[in-house]
Design brief:
Layout (H helix, E strand, L loop, with lengths): L1 E9 L7 H15 L3 E5 L4 H15 L1 E8 L1 H13 L6 E5 L5 H6 L6 H10 L3 E8 L2 E3 L2 E5 H11 L7 H10 L6 E7 L2 E7 L1 E5 L21 E6 L4 H7 L14 E6 L1 E5 L3 E4 L2 E5 L2 E12 L4
Parallel strand pairs: 1-2, 1-3, 3-4
Antiparallel strand pairs: 5-6, 5-16, 7-10, 7-14, 8-9, 8-13, 10-11, 11-12, 13-16, 14-15
Length: 295
């Protein structure tokens, strides 16, 4: 490992071009402290990842600064995981939801504070959730929530986390329960639900704390379930998701375990990205990734 070498990975189109500007700013600030930084920013995500793979092999950096949203974080962590590497990451929030940066406490920090963080503190170890052996740093959503995510991703006029709220309201007209089968640490249960979220951390959709007691430090996964309720009741309870107080609702259930399988006829989105359809197998890898945290 080169203690003075860093990679800065960004999506040049993220945040209406802000990611590219921040990437350059972070590089300048690192260089001002005597460090060497290489920017990795392709015209497409795949070209960016090709460059990242080569850089990980050739540079052995001290760390990776990810300038973008949860989707880019997922892609970079996946590359590090596939390479069986242990390179720590810093998340610089320049996406739409930025939920993993909230988990890490880096959301809203200035460039100077971020550089201080990685130069003066050691990274923390966090658990990693695997969905069919594919990394997920935050939450995998299914059912109604996956449909909302798909609709939000397709929006062009509505920006930021507001589009998740708009997408939710639009999806209400198609609200229906799904039949699920969950096997968790060998225990099987079948139920009807509007959505099921497999969570390693607390939030998705820009701060919606769907699983507020989830922790990426405990070696456990939380499976959050909303049993069928009316459209009116869902609208009534929905605002509480931003504070996490929705968990007191009698139709909201949480199950905990280290590994399991989820079956249903519905799709799954993890870290805001399309992960296909159920069934999925999931498990937690304790202390599998290293991340700079300010909390």
């Amino acid at each position: 490992m080169n203690d003075n070498s860093w990679l800065i990975v960004s999506n040049r189109f993220s945040g209406r071009g802000r990611a590219s500007v921040r990437s350059s700013s972070l590089k300048e600030k690192l260089q001002a402290r005597g460090h060497f930084a290489t920017e990795v920013s392709g015209s497409t995500l795949e070209s960016c990842l090709v460059e990242l793979r080569a850089s990980l092999v050739n540079n052995s950096p001290r760390g990776i600064l990810i300038v973008g949203g949860d989707g880019l974080v997922n892609a970079v962590v996946s590359e590090v995981h596939k390479a069986a590497g242990d390179t720590p990451i810093l998340v610089v929030a320049e996406g739409t939801a930025n939920d993993f940066s909230r988990t890490c406490g880096t959301f809203g920090l200035s460039d100077d504070n971020l550089i201080d963080l990685i130069c003066r503190r050691d990274p923390h170890r966090l658990d990693l959730l695997l969905i069919d052996e594919r990394p997920c740093v935050e939450i995998a959503a299914t059912g109604f929530d996956a449909n909302v995510n798909r609709r939000a991703n397709a929006m062009r006029r509505v920006k930021g986390k507001l589009k998740y709220v708009v997408a939710m309201l639009q999806e209400l007209t198609r609200l229906k329960a799904t039949s699920y089968r969950l096997i968790l640490d060998g225990n099987e249960r079948a139920f009807e639900a509007l959505f099921v979220a497999v969570a390693n951390s607390t939030s998705y959709g820009g701060g919606m704390r769907i699983s507020p007691n989830s922790s990426p430090h405990d070696g456990l996964i939380e499976v959050a379930v909303l049993e069928p309720v009316s459209r009116f009741e869902l609208l009534r309870v929905f605002p509480k998701v931003f504070s996490g107080t929705h968990i007191d609702h009698p139709r909201f259930k949480v199950y905990r375990g280290a590994e399991g399988r989820l079956e249903a006829e519905t799709s799954v989105y993890a870290d805001g990205e399309d992960f296909g359809t159920l069934p999925i197998d999931f498990r937690v890898l304790p202390n599998a990734i290293r991340v700079w945290k300010s909390l």
